[in-house]
Design a protein that fits this description.
3 domains, alpha/beta, about 450 residues, 5-stranded parallel β-sheet, binds flavin-adenine dinucleotide, 18 helices, about 35% helix, about 20% strand, globular, Fumarate Reductase Iron-sulfur Protein, Chain B, domain 2, FAD/NAD(P)-binding domain, binds iron/sulfur cluster
């Protein structure tokens, strides 16, 4: 299989028989603890019960009305620490380790139901009566899409402004295609477009009047969901180096038509990825799939302290990634032509726990060494663009440039402007962004009703 083919499609999901068999294992708990484990209130307890009793359209309706990104969440949610963590079948298996119980695979059932709806042409939403109020949504990532869909279902006139050529945010320009492919995204987008939302792509909201000007231009409320698109860097002020990439740039190249460029750069080369989170895992695994000669994951703490999910860590190991743990990158080594040739590392040992409870990596004096590398990808976190507060100058932000909101409503410090997703939480999850969009949409409806009264 060619490298390009490896990036085209994600694995197939459950078929009807598999989904029914899995739903049949559900213990039908009266209090559905799995539903409490879902940050977006998608209500797996209800949709699994409906599937079990063969009410498939009812099950699809439950998901889509609670979570417009139900398909994406079914594929991408780290379910082991969300809904499936609360599953009684899992808790039973802990008591009886010799038994065959394991948590119900909720994400896979959810994905099946959404795909089944697409295959059968089932339409969940009917066209609502149009309302006069207009709402602007900035950003077409999961938070913006969720907020827009929630409002559009009630007939509000919603316009989404998106600076990139296509909608979807990180789902389109970040997550690698073998985990979440374009065909799937397009179908989920179509469900949202059917609600009558207006999309204005290639339209960046910018300038000192940016967000507030939307209110002056006739929008009755604004939702901000711009996400985090700047990369944290080891040496932020260093000049550009050939062969050094931020995770944002490297992953975008796989998705936005520059696949061949990055394949040529990585093929048969030594790649080092700095970081220990899920994004670093996407970077190392994709480097393997791009035919790199050797791929190193460089992390300053130990294996058990890595923020990446356990299955991601194991998958990367099995793919042949070399883990260089307890090593702190301190500098980039370059040739005279400013091409990257290596990464300077210092070995670390773990000291006392920091405020996060994790033991702090301490540099071991005199232990520095150089890892030869042709490509280095920095996957040490995404952050708000330094300039982002300039287009919402009156909206209060914290010292990380994250927007401050009322947690119950998503209301910012400016009347009529709401916000959600990564820009209020820092790097988080699709399902949390969906919930923020829902919370803000509910608050926007209340706000607009009060304005009318
Ligand atoms: C590589 C990667 C992999 C991930 N994998 C997972 C995963 O497997 N599971 C999971 O649950 N989460 C995952 N996440 C996290 C998840 O994708 C984010 O939490 C989620 O996308 C945040 O949604 P959002 O709506 O806040 O912003 P985003 O998805 O970032 O979307 C924001 C949108 O706003 C647009 N925008 C920004 N500024 C402006 C402006 N001024 N004017 C107009 N448009 C603007 C951007 O172009 C973008 O399209 C991953 C994140 C990354 C980076
Ligand atoms: S949205 Fe995610 S966390 Fe919620 S029930 Fe579905 S798979 Fe689980």
């Amino acid at each position: 299989m060619s490298a390009a083919d490896r990036f085209k499609h994600m694995n197939k999901g459950f078929d009807l028989g598999q989904a029914l068999a899995e739903a049949d294992r559900c213990l039908l708990c009266h209090d559905a603890p799995c539903s409490r484990g879902c940050p977006a209130e998608t209500d797996p307890g209800a949709f699994i019960r409906k599937l079990r009793f063969q009410n498939i359209t009812g099950a699809i309706r439950t998901i889509k009305t609670n979570n417009i990104m139900g398909g994406a969440c079914g594929v991408l949610c780290p379910t082991a620490r969300l809904c499936e963590k609360e599953c009684s079948a899992r808790l039973k298996s802990l008591e009886r380790p010799e038994g065959a119980d394991s948590p119900i695979q909720i994400g896979k059932i959810q994905r099946f139901l959404i795909e089944h709806g697409w295959q059968t042409g089932f339409q969940v939403f009917e066209k609502p009566a149009a309302r006069p109020e207009k709402v602007a949504v900035v950003g077409s990532g999961p938070s913006g899409l969720s907020c827009a869909a929630e409002l559009a279902q009630d007939g509000y006139q919603v316009t989404i402004f998106e600076e990139r050529p296509e909608p979807g945010g990180v789902l389109r320009y970040g997550v690698v295609a073998y985990r979440f492919d374009m065909a799937f995204l397009e179908k989920e987008m179509q469900d949202i477009k059917n609600l009558g939302i207006t999309f204005q792509c290639n339209h960046r909201i910018d300038g000192p009047e940016g967000a507030e000007k939307l209110l002056q231009d006739g929008f009755d409320a604004v939702f901000l969901g711009p996400g985090l698109w700047d990369a944290a860097r080891l040496k932020p002020d260093a000049p550009a180096i050939d062969g050094l990439y931020s995770s944002v740039k490297y992953l975008s190249m796989l998705r936005d038509g520059r696949f061949n460029d990055i394949h040529q750069k990585v093929k048969d080369k030594t790649v080092a990825v700095i970081g220990g989170g899920s994004v670093a895992m996407d970077c190392v695994e994709s480097a393997v799939k791009l035919d790199a000669k050797d791929v190193y994951l460089v992390y300053r703490r130990s294996y058990s302290q890595m923020p990446a999910e356990s299955d991601e860590r194991i998958e990367a190991l099995e793919a042949g990634v070399h883990y260089l743990l307890l090593n702190q990158p301190v500098d980039f080594i370059t040739s005279k032509q400013n091409c990257l040739t290596g990464l300077k590392l210092v070995r670390t040992q773990l000291g006392a726990p920091d405020e996060s409870g994790r033991r702090t990596p301490e540099l071991i004096k005199g232990s520095d060494w150089v890892l030869d590398a042709d490509i280095v990808v920095e996957a040490i976190g995404n952050k708000a663009e330094d300039a982002s507060p300039q287009w919402y100058p009156n909206v209060k932000v914290n010292n990380r440039n994250l927007i401050e909101v009322d947690a119950e409503t998503g209301q910012t410090s400016v009347k009529g402007i709401f916000a959600g997703g990564d820009i209020i939480r820092g790097p988080a999850l699709v399902v949390q962004a969906v919930q923020d969009g829902k919370v803000a949409a509910k608050a926007i409806k209340t706000y607009l009703n009060k304005q009318e009264a």
